[in-house]
From TrEMBL:
Residues 126-225 form the OmpR/PhoB-type domain. Residues 4-118 form the Response regulatory domain. The keyword DNA-binding applies. Pfam families: Response_reg (PF00072), Trans_reg_C (PF00486). This is Response regulator transcription factor. InterPro entries: CheY-like_superfamily (IPR011006), OmpR/PhoB-type_DNA-bd (IPR001867), Sig_transdc_resp-reg_receiver (IPR001789), WalR-like (IPR039420), WH-like_DNA-bd_sf (IPR036388). GO terms for biological process: regulation of DNA-templated transcription. It comes from Candidatus Sneabacter namystus. PROSITE patterns: OMPR_PHOB, RESPONSE_REGULATORY.
């Protein structure tokens, strides 16, 4: 399921940059350019995370955060600010922020922090995805099958990660391409079939012949639900 993020940021360049980063990582991003607008949106809709600037044209970010918590808005808040002093950070944490990242920021660090906050808020702090005999470690970007490391290329890992996040649903080849190349010049969609074929074989060899990936012709590929063996028969 896609994560929904509310960005409260008045600077149009920063706002557009964050929007592009989040959408390239398959997140939905709504943007408010003033604090009061952000407050009203946050009260109406449920978000997985709120990214909050501290210097806003109508009301400062600290006041926005205080009002969010007073209104019982439970979404975790990541402060994204050019204010770098320890006192500013401490104040943010003391009134309810979950994390604080200073500008200018590294886009990969921003994404990593967002994902970590959302995982914690949903009780997924161990940052792993498990299915049948397979364990994907999201932090290490590694895969184990029956406790043994499985060597994958970056493309194969990315495809498996995307399939695991959408287990039981078909992922289109176009979505794979977007996830792999993120707007860079993309090869023909047929390359996805090649990657999936190699990934399927590696998983099968490591698991004793289990076929985890189903191809839905004309639509894409899907990570199947593997039924446990019935030991009573």
């Amino acid at each position: 399921m896609e994560s929904k993020v509310l960005l409260i940021e008045d600077d149009p360049i920063t706002a557009r940059s964050v929007e592009l980063i989040l959408t390239s990582h398959n997140m939905i991003c709504d943007t408010a350019h003033i604090g009061t607008e952000g407050l009203e949106i946050a009260k109406i809709h449920d978000y997985d995370l709120i990214i909050l600037d501290l210097v806003l044209p109508d009301v400062d970010g600290y006041e926005v955060l205080l009002r969010l918590r007073a209104a019982k808005v439970q979404a975790p808040v990541l402060i994204l600010s050019g204010l770098t002093s320890p006192e500013k950070k401490i104040r943010g944490f003391s009134i309810g922020a979950d994390d604080y990242l200073t500008k200018p920021f590294d886009k990969e660090e921003l994404v990593a922090r967002i994902k970590a906050i959302i995982r914690r808020s949903k009780g997924l702090s161990d940052s792993t995805i498990r299915f049948d005999k397979v364990v994907i470690n999201l932090d290490a970007k590694s895969v184990e099958v029956e406790g043994k490391p499985l060597k994958l290329t970056n493309s194969e890992y990315t495809i498996l990660h995307l399939l695991a996040l959408r287990k039981g649903t078909v992922v289109s080849k176009e979505m794979f391409l977007n996830h792999l190349y993120r707007g860079r010049e993309e090869p023909d969609v047929k390359i996805i079939d090649v990657f999936v074929c190699k990934l399927r074989k590696k998983l099968s060899d490591a698991s004793g012949g289990v076929n985890y990936i189903e191809t839905v012709w004309g639509r894409g590929h899907m990570l199947k639900d593997i039924e446990p063996c019935d030991t009573n028969n």
